[in-house]
Structures are given as C-alpha cells and as structure tokens.
Amino acid sequence: MGTLYCISFMFFISVIRLDFCRSSAAVDYMTEQKAECHYVNGTQQVRYLDRYFYNQEELVYFDSDKGYFIAKTEFGKPDADYWNKNKDIIEDEKSAVETYCKHNYGVWKEGAIERKVKPEIVVSLMPNHEEPRTVHHILQCNVFGFYPSEVEVKWYRNGQEETELVTSSALFQNGDWSFRILVMLETEIHKGDTFTCEVHHISLEAPHRVDWHPQMSDSAKSKRATGIGGIVLGTAFLIVGVVIYMRGRKAKTPFRGPQSEHFIHT
Asked: Per the confidence metrics, is the pTM higher than 0.85?
C-alpha cells in the first residue's frame, strides 16, 4: 500500500461586515477557500480538492476524482450547479492536478515530504514521595523533536510488552515543524525490574529503545548523593577535630626544669 500525503493551501479568507440600520452591533461573516492535494506513491496517484466554506461550514467542493463540483449543503447547490455548467471552470479545475498539485509536489518534496528528523527520547519516573518498591508508579516516555508526525511508542517490562495500563497524550506540534508525544505506563516496580520505551519512526533504521531501572530513579540518586556527601563532610570534620585536639595537647605540656646535678636547691 502506498504512502499518502496531503498538502493544503489556503487561498484566501475574507471577512464581510454587514451593518444594519436597526441593529446595534455589526455582524461578521467569513468565507474561506482551501485547495488540497492528496498524493499516493509520490505523484502516481493525485487527488485535487477545491473546497469552499462559509462561517467554517463547508458548502461546496470540487473533486478531481469525480470531475465536477459537489454541494455539501443546500446553500452550496446554486454554486455547484452554476460552476458545473461552465466548461472553462471545470477544465481549469481538472488541470490543477498537473499545474498545481504535481508542480507543488516538486517544490515541497525536499522540505516537507521527504524531510525526516529523528526523535529524542527521555524516560523518567513521575515524581512520587515514596521510593519505588511494590506500589503503583507512573513511568513516562517523552518523545519529542521528530518529523513527520507518524510515530509508535511501546512499553516493555522485563522484555514483555505492556498494553493494559498504557496511556498516551495527544500529539503536540512544537511550532518548528516537529512534534512531541508523552506515553505513560502505570505499573508496580520491584528491585531488578527493567522497563523499556521503544519508539518506531520512519527516520529510524531500527526501533530506538531506552531502558529504565529502579536504581536509576532520581530520588535514589539524590539519596545516594546525600549519603556520600554526609560521609565526606563528617570525615572532614573528624579530621579537623583531631588536628585541633592534638595541637591543644602540645600547648598544655607541663614545664620541666633542668635535670642537672649542678642545679642549686634551696
């Protein structure tokens, strides 16, 4: 089955403001025209749609697969009937497959259609007051910076795929032609467990896997660092104390007089 791409171009949006003598507020209306090119296997199969909207409701559209305009509402029927009777308009719409869609495919091919950006993956434990042992915790796999948007994220526990308690956020656009998604796993965590987030994306030659282990948790690292820091600090204070103590003993050594037989005693 071929790969389907869609490129949409908005031709114009016009806002019409009508002021009525008996109305205290003006009424706004918006018309919109949108041209879409749908591609299958490059330009082997191309479908062109020319769509017309009124206040965000589609009224009528041209479909190159059909070869004529189709009304979506009663309000769009007069336009569909009028345009379908005009051979020049119909021929112009049909020719858009070649002059508009296939032409723009070449223009956008490298920058949009063939563009591939590998995802970045960060696996972490959702903050919890307790260290993971046998209670339910939530692991989160943050996948971001990838293009195009199609992506598949799986969770594994000790090599076995987890499906029941897996939830996913919506797909977010970052505003720079890249996407982001967060996939979470609610699970029990035991010592010795290994959790894996696996990401499938067209930019990757093979699925990318990131492992997480309980001893890698941020809280465990923090506690371990605190413990080591305490030991080092305690040892330093102990050494300083011993040095001060030894110096104090030297300062308080009692004076001893000359031990000579010629010393005069009274």
From this structure: no
